[in-house]
Amino acid sequence: MGTVKTKRMPRAVREQQMLDAAVRTFGQRGYMAASMDEIAELAGVSKPLVYLYLNSKEDLFTACIRREAGALTEAVRTGVDRELPADRQLWDGLRAFFTYTAEHPDGWSVLHLQARTHGEGFAAEVAAMREEIVAFVTQLIVAAARSALPHSRTCSRGGTPIDPDLGEGEVAGLAEALVGAAESLAAWANATPGVTARQAAATLMNFAWAGLGNLMEGRPWSPP
Amino acid sequence: MGTVKTKRMPRAVREQQMLDAAVRTFGQRGYMAASMDEIAELAGVSKPLVYLYLNSKEDLFTACIRREAGALTEAVRTGVDRELPADRQLWDGLRAFFTYTAEHPDGWSVLHLQARTHGEGFAAEVAAMREEIVAFVTQLIVAAARSALPHSRTCSRGGTPIDPDLGEGEVAGLAEALVGAAESLAAWANATPGVTARQAAATLMNFAWAGLGNLMEGRPWSPP
Amino acid sequence: MGTVKTKRMPRAVREQQMLDAAVRTFGQRGYMAASMDEIAELAGVSKPLVYLYLNSKEDLFTACIRREAGALTEAVRTGVDRELPADRQLWDGLRAFFTYTAEHPDGWSVLHLQARTHGEGFAAEVAAMREEIVAFVTQLIVAAARSALPHSRTCSRGGTPIDPDLGEGEVAGLAEALVGAAESLAAWANATPGVTARQAAATLMNFAWAGLGNLMEGRPWSPP
Amino acid sequence: MGTVKTKRMPRAVREQQMLDAAVRTFGQRGYMAASMDEIAELAGVSKPLVYLYLNSKEDLFTACIRREAGALTEAVRTGVDRELPADRQLWDGLRAFFTYTAEHPDGWSVLHLQARTHGEGFAAEVAAMREEIVAFVTQLIVAAARSALPHSRTCSRGGTPIDPDLGEGEVAGLAEALVGAAESLAAWANATPGVTARQAAATLMNFAWAGLGNLMEGRPWSPP
DNA sequence: AATGAATGAGTGTTCATTCAT
DNA sequence: AATGAATGAACACTCATTCAT
């Protein structure tokens, strides 16, 4: 029993305990393999109470997704100061992201693995959060592109500046790749002992920032 | 019925039909939601026959993972000529990868989503394949680093050459990020109509190659 | 909520509200499908209060049966003047009966359908009421039989008077048939738009009275 | 166990055993109170087999209704010779009906009590059968009316012949009353020891036939 | 080589009922 | 007079798996 069995608590508290238990169980067992029995026991309550408060397994899972998605975006938002330069914002955001995923592996599993593999409805729920993050990253890329030309960090040979074709689709793909890389690194960092959130963030920052910079300056890699 | 119900076929053929049906079902329904009944019916055989040949649901799933992992790595291997320059090899590998995942969404779902979310055993199975790919990418990165100095693609101001700290852990992280980005882009490309394998490959190549190049040249982004 | 949620009312009133809600719910959902939750909510009170006043689902249902049975017999009793001739009494009684069942479909459903299909105890409860009515009808038949001979309504060829075999069992069967026909017609009239209580009563009166009359006069249909 | 537990029997046989058990259980416990566990045990099989063959509780109940309704109508149909006079047909039909209901009390309970109190779908299923019977009775009434005038069984004073107002609605009400009376008498006969099917039929025949006869001859009871 | 017949063990869900206040 | 919090026991239904042929 994960929670001390204290009786007669207000509904709001019990609900949080249930969500805690559910996130843990869903994250470790997976959505389908997690049984309501196990969740209830871990929460220290009877199954009917879980149903009374959370309605159904689907609703319970949705509630988990919403809570965890909110907490993750909140963590990132809090970690970033929107007044700072774009690269600094990206760096801070990545660090906040990797820190959160490292500290909440079950929640991250729910969002990243479980929610995306068990029905359109759940996937849509995370997709909303993900789009928020992708949009944020896209903003940073565009901001970086704008600031890249005047004082380009590397030798700009006066060549063609920013590619006019670096349109929406292009940027979307880049943001997608960056976010995807971050998601993968999160799992990798969690699974590899000795890799801190800071290191993961540094790795990705190195990988991405210079690449983006070069790209902005109109020197893309061109397929043969 | 997915397969015409022809009776009395050699075991090897029947097994492939079963694996086809299983990959499709696992890929679309998910491991737990897929029922042996559905798989047997889709394969056009009776359930006991599936058990006779494949033993159990777990074994059947493992067989699916092995077959699909083999097919994927084979596709990438075939697409790459190890004699060509590193960037060309990466480009060809990415194209082969995105092409394969686009043409075998169910198999890719089995490998990327299902196998990783349903037990350590299955995850280990794909991890082996993934490590193979990561190792390959790591080789490419190192090879690129070696070739980067003599004839650097961009203006090398004769600055410090390759970072001596670009050790194993660093490279591992980079390869991990690249592979992770590729995996995410595969899902994105599959889900976004109008994005071809070639475009996905180009996006990632742009994102990665220049970034790696800059990195090799000793101009990494440094955390504040 | 069916009832305005006024707090702190005397017990008797609350009990009636609960019985109202219960009759409605039992009548529409059926005994088993009706949940104490729904009844409590419809009554505008909390579930424990229902238990405090009515003890259990069984007791609540029994209370419903008693109240509705009492109301129905009272309605019939009030509609009949025991000083009038037998046929007039029957006519008035039928009219009162059909009127009541039309105006209280849920109560009628509780008595006629639910109580008879969910346990001997409940069935016995309605059986008591039914016997009262059957006894009343039996009286009327006997009274009619007595009055039939002196001034037979139709051409009495002076044939054998009342059948000496028209014993208790015989009369009981007739009363039973009449009451059963009435019950069925009640459901039919409720379900058939445009059929009034008066019409239902007339139909049955036509059907029954002449038949009874002929019977009294010793001209029964004889089996081959 | 009601059935000897013989293993491995053809599906058709098992299905009948299951329906036997289901009719008995539904008839005695009621639809909702009957548990699939009990039915399966009574049938001498495991629960999953019941589901494999009959799909769901609803489907199982529907199958019961259909089988019992078919058997009842078949029994009545078989008992009646459509070449004989109307009164003889009615007599034979009633006898067949009372005989069947006496011999299959559970089936009769399913049709008469359970099916009508648990959902529109089930009710519609029996309503079809009932309408068939009501239509048959209606035919008999009309046929009787036709044959009543020329050679009226009782003293026809040459008075007004058949009531021109004896329209469709009127006849429908009469048939409804007759069938309803029969249904009620069936329950009564079943519950009253010593009442045979023949006696029940005779009681109703006496009650109804003379009444109908008088009615045909234009001497209806008229409301005050 | 292949299958119709059958089940043990479990799932999500609901309900009548009580306790503490 | 009245309730929010909580549960034991059951139910319909499903599934991976095996047996007998």
From TrEMBL, chains A, B, C, D:
Domain HTH tetR-type: 12-72
Keywords: DNA-binding, Transcription, Transcription regulation
GO molecular function: DNA-binding transcription factor activity; transcription cis-regulatory region binding
One of the Pfam families matching this protein, by short name: TetR_C_46
DNA-binding region ranges: 35-54
Highest rank taxon of the organism: Bacteria
Spans through the membrane: none
Protein name: TetR/AcrR family transcriptional regulator
